[in-house]
Each structure stands twice: as C-alpha cells, then as structure tokens.
What we know:
By secondary structure, the protein is α+β, with helices and mostly antiparallel strands. It contains two helices and eleven strands. It has one domain.
Amino acid sequence: MTEEPIDVVASVGPLDITVATLREFVHRSGALRVVAIVDLAPGEGPAVVDCARLAPTEVTAGGRMVQLPHAIELDAEVPALPEVRRLPPFQVDRDRGEIAGMIGGVEHLGRAVVGLAELLGARNVAMAQFETDDPQTPLTITARAGATDPVVVAIGEDDYEMESGWPGIEPAQYGRSPPCCCASPSSSPARR
C-alpha cells in the first residue's frame, strides 16, 4: 500500500491563528509538541493541529492532512498567552508513577496548558508534551476549555486524571475572550 503524499501549504485559512498560537507556546514553554483539537463549524467535525518543536505543523481537517513549514510567516496575530516558562526536564519513574523536578513545576505547566485550552475557546482541547530524563517517557498535560473535564497528566503512556480544580486556577481567571480560531460550540465536541 502506498501512502498518499502530504500537501505542503502556506496557510490553513482561519486555523492560521491556532497554528501561530501553538507554535509560540512551543517556543516559550520548551514543549516537545503541542496539539489542539478544535471544533469547526457545526457539521464539519474537529480539526487537529499538531505543532512539534522544529518540525512541520500538521493540520488535519475534513479527512485531509496538510503540513506548514515550521518557520513560515503567517498573517495571524498571536493572542496574549498564559504565563509559561521553560523548565529543566523532569525526572520520571513510570513504574511508580512519580515525577520529580522544580517545586511547583508541574502545576506551572498545568496552569499554562489550561490557559492555552481557554484561549482556544469553546470546548476545545490542548495537549502539551514536555521533556523528561527519559526520552521515551515524555510528560504530557491535557486540558479542555471550560474546565468541564479534569486535567490529565501522563507519564509516557500512563494517564493520571487530576482532582477537580487542579492546578488551582479557575477558567474565569483567563477571561472569556473570543476564541483564537474558527472554533464554535458543537453538539459533539472532539474527545482526546
């Protein structure tokens, strides 16, 4: 079976702002990868925007995947991102489900990912992967806008649903500015 060639494009239209926002989040946070699942217009299903460090950004919508070069300039103004800074890689013990690192580091990144999800608006999802001392076991944080679902922290493939209210921030603290992409509420939101 031959694979279909992937089209390389210079724009994904109304999703350009989502691409630019995720790319800026990757640069500021030092994340390995940031993915957003955003609802499009009703009946169109979700789009998946996958932005990895120094790699082409992949956008899948309507059953079609395209790539944008990582450094391409987009005609999109990045909204104010939540506070986020680069942290040293975390030490992880997958077998014991333990994370060690800077005090408050996981919570800091959790607040940043929740803030990113809120920027995406509606009931959209943000997921970010961060470096650890084991390249095969990244630390992943996933959040949905609106705080209706708990934040999920993963060590490699092992998921841990956090307690309600973690990481100690309410969505209202980010305001409810218009979503940064063409997201709109849908009767069947995308699931992680």
